[in-house]
Amino acid sequence: MPDMIPPETALPEPIHIPEEDLAPSNARLKRWGVGAAVVALVIAAAGVVSRVHNDHALRESAAEAAIPVVTVVHPTPAVSAPLVLPAQIEAFNSAAIFARTNGYVSRWLVDIGQHVRAGQVLATLDAPDLDQQLAQARADYETALANQHLAEITARRWKSMLAQDAVSRQETDEKEGDLAAKQALSNAALANVRRLVATEGFTQLAAPFAGVVSSRGTQIGQLVVAGTANSAPLFTISDVHRMRIFVRVPQSSAGQVHDGMSATLTVPEYPTRQYVATLVHNSQAVDTRSGSVLVELQIDNPDGTLKPGAFAQVTFPGGSGGALAGDMAIPGSAVLYTNSGPTIALVDGHGRVTVRPVRIARDAGTTVTVSGIAADDRVIDSPPDSIRSGDRVQVGAGPHAG
Fold first, then answer.
1. Would 91 be classed as within a structural domain?
2. 259 and 307 belong to one structural domain
């Protein structure tokens, strides 16, 4: 018989909930679902808006980063400064001494640095073949003289016989014509003798004027050949009592120099000493290769401190720098050189660039003097070669032109 379950351990009866009591719970679940969906939509919308905002901000940042940052300088009024130009010093007179005849150097009498007077013998040549030519020419002249003397006697004799009608007029004229021919041969022989005598005189090399021997290119026993185009001079004589200084003045400053004006001269070996030279010649022509005008200054050189071929710097006085009223000074790095000439880049208050052509009045290297700009213009320093009018730039902190 199965076991009986005690009454105290019997299972409880199920609880019965009416359907009307379940309806409010389903409505709340629906409301919660709708609320969750709304929240999700709000969150998604906020994410989209944030992403769009971030993308827009990123594009703006990229656009701002793409705008180059430049440094601007302000022009300053140009000051007319002295014009300093390189120069070349040359002797007042200089002559290269070449041989006029072939021969061997038998001796040289002067060396470099020595002072010589006009006509002083510098070296002698030994020309034995020339001596033989001269001896032959003199013998030919003696022969021509003898023939002339014989023709002269014959012509005189035939002329006297013609007076006695002993000979014909034709024969007499022939004898006189032979005399004239013999005289011409004598003159030709004499001219040849004189030519060789003059040529022999060239075996003595003499100074054409007083000066200093600045070069010697000969040695004893050296063979020299006359008329060789590539031969070196045997001596060079320089007259250094007065010096010539040649300066090439840029065309922009050529109108500021004139004959008679003074300029100071300095040389590297005497940096603290200044020489005063006078402008004496102006070529009045612009060299097409250098775009400059050649001028010549002269200066006395009593102590010989100025040397031919030396480099010097000539300083023309203030007012010759080429600056005009209204010219402004800017750094040389602010100038762009294009096919149409020098230009500068200006930036306005809105960061817009304007490229403007300028005229350079004077180029001092670090600074240049230009026209066509005002003191309140903002000039871009070291502008890129690709900059164009209408470009946008950002102005950064930087030095101003002084």
1. no
2. yes
d(CA 256, CA 59): 58
Question: Which secondary-structure segment (H or E) carries 47?
Answer: helix 19-66
Contacts of 315 (CB under 8 A, 6+ apart): 82, 83, 84, 263, 264, 265, 266
191 lies in the same domain as 107: yes
Cβ–Cβ < 8 Å for 303, 86: no
The burial of 104, by beta-carbon neighbours within 10 Å (0-12 exposed, 13-18 middle, 19 or more buried), is given as middle
Residue 55, helix vs strand vs coil: helix
Q: Residue 235 and residue 211: Cα distance in Å, rounded?
A: 12
Pairwise CA distance, residues 295 & 263, whole Å: 12
**Is residue 178 within 8 Å of 203, Cβ to Cβ?**
no
Is 394:70 a contact under the CB 8 Å cutoff? Answer: yes
Task: Tell me which residue range forms the domain holding 179.
Answer: 100-206
Of the residues 284, 316, 348, which one is the last residue of a structural domain?
Answer: 316
Tokens 């001079």 label which residue? 233
In-domain check, residue 389: yes
Name the phi and psi angles at 23, rounded to 5: -60, -45
Judge whether 339 lies within some domain.
yes
Task: Specify whether 303 is located in the same domain as 329.
Answer: no
DSSP 133: H
For residue 113, the SS3 value is coil
Give the C-alpha separation, 147 to 145, whole Å: 5
What whole-number distance in Å separates Cα of residue 48 and Cα of residue 42? Answer: 10
Angle, CA of 269, 274 and 275, to the nearest 5° = 100
In a domain, 200, yes or no: yes
pLDDT in tens, the chain (402 residues): 445 545 555 555 555 555 555 455 566 666 777 777 777 777 777 766 667 666 665 565 555 556 788 888 888 887 766 788 999 999 999 999 988 888 899 999 999 999 999 999 999 999 888 889 999 999 999 999 999 899 889 888 888 888 888 878 888 888 889 889 999 999 999 999 999 998 888 889 999 999 999 999 889 998 888 866 667 889 999 999 999 999 999 987 888 888 999 999 999 999 899 999 999 999 999 999 989 999 999 999 999 999 999 999 999 986 544 455 568 888 888 888 888 888 888 888 888 888 889 888 777 778 888 887 888 888 888 888 888 888 888 887 655 444
pTM across the whole model: 0.57
What CATH number corresponds to the domain at position 263? Answer: 2.40.30.170
